[in-house]
Write a structure and sequence with these properties.
CATH topology of the largest domain: Immunoglobulin-like
Distance between the termini: 136 Å
Strand order of the largest sheet: 2-10-9-6
Helix content: 10-25%
Number of domains: 2
Strand content: 35-45%
Number of helices: 1
Structural class: mainly beta
Number of strands: 10
């Protein structure tokens, strides 16, 4: 009778383990729950082309679109980076502030989550400053 009781106890233990492990008789493979983490599917920059005068600044924003349909503005605090193709014409800070330094063109690129997006920056010369004019005399 001892071996019958041992088999009964073993069967009960196996049933408990199977139930506790979500149907698996192995206690090392519990029921797995999968949660899908959304991934970045695209990145966009607020403007695709901007014209600035020397000395002007503008702040660009980057927006990440995710696989679950959501969109979020991203910044350096969450890992977005900014880069200028020609920093002597236009530089960009870690927070997306573009500053125009000299006439020419530069491409500003934002990168986040394996995606990137760009804005073309055209910098025109500063406004002309006229000096040394004499007043015009008007005779009536």
């Amino acid at each position: 009778m001892g071996s019958r009781r041992a088999r009964f106890v073993a069967t009960v233990i196996a049933a408990v383990v199977t139930a506790a492990c979500g149907g698996s008789s192995s206690p090392t493979s519990p029921t797995e729950t999968t949660s899908s983490t959304p991934t970045v599917t695209s990145l966009s920059v607020g403007a695709s082309a901007i014209t600035l005068s020397v000395g002007d600044s503008v702040t660009l924003t980057a927006s990440a679109s995710y696989s679950d349909g959501t969109s979020v503005t991203v910044s350096a605090t969450v890992g977005a980076t900014w880069e200028s193709s020609n920093s002597s014409v236009a530089s960009v800070s870690a927070s997306g502030v573009v500053t125009a330094h000299a006439a020419g063109m530069a491409t500003i690129t934002a990168t986040f989550g394996g995606q990137s997006a760009s804005a073309d920056i055209t910098v025109t010369g500063s406004g002309a400053t006229v000096t040394g004019l004499s007043p015009v005399k008007t005779f009536l």
